[in-house]
Specification:
By secondary structure, the protein is an alpha+beta fold. Strands 17-14-16-15-19-20-18-21 form an eight-stranded antiparallel β-sheet, with helices on both faces. Strands 7-8-12-10-11 form a five-stranded antiparallel β-sheet. It has a three-stranded antiparallel β-sheet with strand order 1-2-3, with no helix packed on it. The radius of gyration is 21 Å and the shape is globular. It has 14 helices and 21 strands.
């Protein structure tokens, strides 16, 4: 999977192809001192500054016409403290590299999302999450972080040091400073048994609370135009390790989930009338399977089919009704949706602008194949999500603004006041932050 793309003329593009920007200059600092100097130099030149990770956000959260900081050289593990159960990593480290390095050390994060191409700072700053009954987003596993603020100074934040900045900066949207290092809580590596099986949508929705309560990590995919879902339950296991066989893994994960799925998406985009029939076939393509492996091999999977995504966090108790409304809307409309809808959960956390801040949460993500018109579907979905006080993922398509966020985040004013204090001249401002945080 490719990451951020730079065109020949200095144009930066994101992974989903939804955002392009032409920064005045791009900087690849090799140290924290060089990064701080780049921020100070930008201030002298009257330019704004944004750091960009792997470009996995569908929003323009990282776009700038000022100075674009590329953290490719700020990677790797700084320190592992086995006694404290922590690992400190440079901000530009891709999650994939972190997961593999930790596994070699016999360690693991407790929970993670289903893609690991993002950098640690990009993933946490936008609130990337997996699914969990008790374990929360990647940002909720942060114990300490280091960031360069607008005046070029270096701040360390934790529950003890600068706690109010720590509460906000773990999912800080790049608005408070540029993260240079993150300390995560880690634990001795463990095994997860994954149980994947098809289930009818009626069965999943009627048993949702039970499936959520009985499993450490429960998620499912519903295929629009069908009554079918694929469910996935991940639970800790005493072993033995029973990974997916190489051939079976290639067939299910590469051939069916990426190769054949890609061809099906092309067919649906070319002839939308075929989508419901393709959805019926797709929803039955993956058979039930059970396997046991180390966490990152169970939680994450390759995603080679390009798409555009909108995801909203709704109160967990509202998820079934929200999903039913979405199904009714799709059924009544002439929309042709070829991508499954993903449903996950997270416990409440204490991060100021986390989508799970202060409430037990369920996530509903809608996707469209790249190059397919998505506006009508996303607009209809967003209307349903916002009626349930939904909070959009900061890195995925949405149309909400600061006025809306002030209503759905009780601590929104706390975040904007902190931003006024740390970045009074809006060194880290861009159009997206102007819209979602106000100017």
């Amino acid at each position: 999977m490719s990451t951020t793309v730079s065109g020949r003329n200095g144009t930066w593009r994101n992974w989903g192809g939804t955002v392009a920007a032409r920064p005045a200059r791009q900087v690849e600092p090799a140290s924290v001192d060089e990064l701080a100097a780049a921020v100070r130099k930008a201030a002298e030149d009257g330019l704004t500054v944004k750091a960009v990770g792997s470009g996995h956000s569908f929003t323009s959260v990282a776009a700038t016409d000022g100075v674009l900081i590329r953290p490719q050289l700020l990677t790797g593990i700084r320190n592992i403290d086995r006694e404290a159960g922590t690992v400190t990593v440079e901000a530009g480290t891709p999650l994939k590299r972190l997961n593999m390095a930790l596994a070699r050390e016999g360690l693991s994060l407790t929970n993670m999302g289903d893609i690991m191409e993002q950098t640690v700072s990009g993933a946490t700053s936008t609130g990337t999450h997996g699914t969990g009954r008790d374990s929360a987003s990647i940002a909720a596993q942060i114990k300490e972080l280091e960031l360069v603020t607008a005046d070029g100074s270096l701040l360390t934040c934790s529950e003890k040091e600068n706690p109010e900045i720590f509460a906000a900066a773990r999912t800080g949207l790049g608005a408070l400073g540029i993260i240079t290092a993150i300390t995560f809580a880690v634990e001795p590596i463990f095994l997860l048994t994954a149980r994947e099986e098809p289930m009818s949508l009626d069965q999943v929705t009627s048993r949702f609370n039970e499936l959520w309560a009985e499993n450490e990590h429960f998620e499912f995919y519903w295929f629009p135009h069908t009554g079918n879902t694929n469910t996935k339950r991940n639970n800790r296991s005493a072993g033995p390790e029973q990974p997916v066989g190489q051939l079976a893994g290639w067939f299910e994960d590469e051939f069916l989930s990426n190769g054949v799925f890609q061809v099906a998406q092309w067919a649906g985009r070319a002839v939308p009338a075929t989508v419901p029939a393709i959805a019926q076939i797709s929803s039955k393509a993956l058979s039930a399977r059970t396997y046991t492996d180390i966490p990152y091999k169970v939680f994450t999977s390759p995603r080679r089919v390009r798409f555009v995504e909108m995801e909203y966090a709704v109160p967990r108790e509202a998820v079934v009704e929200t999903l039913r409304e979405l199904k009714r809307t799709v059924d009544r409309s002439g929309l042709r949706i070829s991508f499954p809808v993903e449903v996950r959960t997270a416990p409440a956390d204490d991060i100021t602008l986390s989508t799970a801040s202060g409430r037990d949460t369920a996530y509903i993500a809608v996707h469209m194949f790249k190059g397919t018109p998505y506006q009508a579907y996303f607009t209809a979905a967003e209307r349903i999500f916002t009626a349930h006080e939904g909070r959009p993922h900061w890195g995925k398509v949405h149309t909400r603004d600061a006025e809306y966020f002030a209503g759905v985040y009780p601590r929104f004013g706390e975040f904007t006041a902190l931003r006024d204090r740390l970045d009074p001249e809006r060194r880290f401002q861009n159009d997206y932050l102007r819209r979602v945080l106000g100017s």
